[in-house]
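Quiz preparation item.
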């Protein structure tokens, strides 16, 4: 039970960090589209999707 709560907390933190990082990268991409920040940060999107998927499964 304690381990499950810890994993849920870690997944929540991963979602917040990846979400904030993607917002910053999106703003940087608007200012300089030739650097292709969004193209090089797809791993953040993958982490966000995976963490939110498992966090959603835990909520069921």
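Solution:
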């Amino acid at each position: 039970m304690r381990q499950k709560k810890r994993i849920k907390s870690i997944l929540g933190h991963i979602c917040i960090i990846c979400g904030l990082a993607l917002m910053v990268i999106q703003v940087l991409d608007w200012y300089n589209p030739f650097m292709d920040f969004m193209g090089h940060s797809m791993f953040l999107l993958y982490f966000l999707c995976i963490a939110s998927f498992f966090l959603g499964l835990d909520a069921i």
